Every structure is written in C-alpha cells, then in structure tokens.
Amino acid sequence: MLNARFLTLIMEILREKYSQSFVVLGVDSVLQTYFLHILSTIIVSLDNPPNSQDIIQAIKILVELFRALTRPPRKSIQGLWAELYLMARSNQSFALVKAWHIRPEDRYDFSLGNQRIEIKSTSHRVRQHHFSFRATSSPAGTEVLIASLFVERSQAGQSLVDLLEKIRSCIIDRPDLLLHMDEIVGLTLGSSWRHISSRDLMKKLAEESLAFYEASAVPSVNPEIPITVSNVHFMTDLTDLQPVNLTTYQVRVGCSRLGYSRMMA
Question: Are residues 107 and 52 in the same domain?
C-alpha cells in the first residue's frame, strides 16, 4: 500500500519544478499508468516513513526517467526483449536482474562476479550477429558466454509487458531489484516506451533457437589491433560453432552465480 503522504509530497514537488512533464502526464493515459507503476515501485523500495534523503533520491529517479522518455532509445525493442526473455525463462531471475547492466557502455549485458553473459538476437534465422571486439576479448579471469536466439513478430507472441510481469512475479519480495529492473527498462526504451505492450515476439521460436557459446570460441578479428584504432565492431556467423552444454559448462567452471544450467529449463 502506498504511503499517501509521501506520494502527495512527491507529486507536489514534481508539479512545481517539472510542470511541463505534468502537462504531458495529464493527457496521456499510457504515460500515467507507467508513471504510477514506477512511483509505486520506488515507494515500496523505501523505508516507511521515508526520510528526506529517500524523497530526494525518489525525485531524482523519476526526473531521470521522465527525461529519458524524450531521448532516443538506447537499444532496440528486439534487443531489450531478448534480455528480458532470458531473465523470464530462468529460475534464477533474481540473480540475472541483479547482474543486469544499467549503462549502455557496459561491455556485457549481465555481469556478476567473474561471470558474464552477452545476448545476441536476430530476426533472420541465421546466427549472424554484430559484436564489438571488447565483447569477444574476455578480461583475464572471467567466464563469458554468448546467448544467441532467433526472434520474429507474432500476434500470439509475448510483449515486453508480459515478460516484465513474469520476472516481477519471481522477484516480488525484492523491491530493490524491482526498482533496478524498472529503471533499466525506462532508460533503455527512451522515446520508444509507447511500444512496451504492442510489439509481440514469438516465444516458441526463441525457446527452440536459444543456444550458448563461449566468447573465446567466437570468430573474431586479428587481436593485434593498432593502438590508434578503437571501437572495432564486426559481424560473425555462429552457425558452425558447437553450442555449449550448460550443465557440463557449469561443472567445468565451478559454482555459477548466474545459474547457467537453469537457463535452458
């Protein structure tokens, strides 16, 4: 249940300092629903009653999310869907949400301890993916997996909202992780947030095509790159690579904090 006094206080501060955003909020029912959902998550994650620092932090998060709604998306709907799909299908959702990157410049999509996962999706049914050289050159002492899957639009598919609700049901007792997830989704979607419930992708195809590969096995460019060359990207076809058996892989690398063997459940 929302703390009514806290809710009223935040609304008054936002209305006074960010009146332009409230004009849009007042006429857009989709944005109203999104705003109230985020606000609910923020309040649940705080102490009751909240202190002044809680209020300041809550306002900062809301303002940043509102600003993000006017910026270009950080990632395509397809890319975000693939990341959420991996979290939704795993029975280690809480670990994957905790490991989910929040900055677009992060090298990998998921990072926890010395374990990394990078998600690659394609709508062409051929495992050709774009890579950065940094993603395939694993840092010393890290174990990096590449998850590859096919996606296609389907009226009977699952939307971002469907996947988010599935993940929320798994981490409902962790308001800190709920807030972390909502922040990343909002910042990633940017101005494409209106499509959060309207772009459905085929779950069955994703399930059938999901495969994992060791980053060290991915064909890459010559590692002897001149120091004057940076931001190297390339496309690689993984079709002929042997996928990793996650159960065997977990035994070989030791205890997995990301629950590798449970991702193919």
Answer: no
Closest CA to 35 of 54, 56, 59: 59
pLDDT tens digit sequence for 232-254: 999 999 999 999 988 787 766 66
Bridge partners of residue 61, in order along the sequence: none
User: Of 38, 68, 98, which residue sits at a domain end?
Assistant: 68
Q: Is the pTM of this model over 0.90?
A: no
Domain shared by 64 and 82, yes or no: no
CA atoms within a 13 Å half-sphere pointing along the CA-CB vector of 218: 30
pLDDT in tens, 14-55: 566 555 555 455 556 666 677 777 777 777 777 666 677 777
Q: What is the Rg, in whole angstroms, of the alpha carbon atoms belonging to the chain?
A: 20
b/e per residue, 143-153, with b = 16+ CB within 10 A? bbbbbbbbbbe
Nearest of 221, 198, 169, 181 to residue 38 by alpha carbon: 181
Peptide bond into 50 cis (omega under 30): no
Q: What are phi and psi of 117, to 5 degrees?
A: -135, 135
